[in-house]
Amino acid sequence: MLGRIFNIQHFSVHDGPGIRTVVFFKGCPLRCAWCANPESQVRKIQLGWNCGECIGCKSCVNQLGKLGCHFKDDGLYWNQDIQLTAEDAKEVSYICPTHALHAIGRDVTVEEVLKEVEKDSSFYAESGGGITLSGGEPLLQHEFVTSLLREAGRRHINRAMETTGLSRYEIFEEVASELDFLLMDVKMWSKTLHEKWTGMPNDVILENLEKIRRRFPELPILLRTPVIPGVNDDEKELSAITKFVRSLGGKTEHELLQYHRLGKPKYESLHRTYELGNAMLSDERFIRLRNCVRNLPQ
Ligand code: SF4
Fold this sequence. Notes:
Elements: E1 3-12, E2 20-25, E3 46-49, H1 59-63, E4 70-72, E5 75-77, H2 86-95, E6 101-104, E7 106-108, H3 110-117, H4 121-127, E8 130-134, H5 142-154, E9 158-163, H6 169-176, E10 181-185, H7 191-198, H8 203-215, E11 221-227, H9 235-248, E12 252-258, H10 264-269, H11 283-294
Parallel strand pairs: 2-8, 8-9, 9-10, 10-11, 11-12
Antiparallel strand pairs: 1-2, 1-7, 3-6, 4-5
Helix pairs in contact: 3-5, 5-6, 6-8
The protein binds iron/sulfur cluster.
């Protein structure tokens, strides 16, 4: 069985307890306008191009004819409709000398992932860390993910997963039964706003969260709300989320995340438009909103 991932990141300290190795899965049911990993959204293997690393040798144009590479005034373009195979991806990495043009996405076995993850074993022992599955949406590849988590468990590796929560409940429950820690976003309370900014309503997500909380009362769950300017940065919305989260009980924690635009260059490399433009959220406004929800009566 193969899983499709686009990155394995070592030494993360923001994706669960301790020092984590994060496996990023490809494919997501949501299209959040602020997504910091836009390369995670589609399941197929894609091409990306970093202008700053391109030396203009045109090897891609001359030797990757199948991909339809061609330069326009504002950079390198290619045939977006092409279905890239693993062989195509290898050829791209071989042909482009600087990796300015690169394939995003590769198919891996459970053993290949764990071999990479176990390089960090000594850090897990010291910090209480382990593996975190992220994305994209790991639940879209639930059969592979369940096998990976089971095998990691057999090897005594702490297992966390970051999910949108948008899945058939039975799938979510099966995967959650293999977890030591769950991270999930509660992005918005308003169903209309959620659908407008992520492409999908949030009712299934919130229902799934309530059911998982009841089914696994001992599972530590960290819920996160990214505060996005012009989207959910208002007291009413954040207060409604906070009240819902507090009602869940159990080992549930909640934090607000400050908006950042670190993913914006990735949109350019994929020839996509970053919908939020230059929107900003000042430190002062974020702190004010955070204090507002912290001070809500219990
Ligand atoms: S092969 Fe790479 S470096 Fe050369 S022109 Fe193409 S993208 Fe640029």
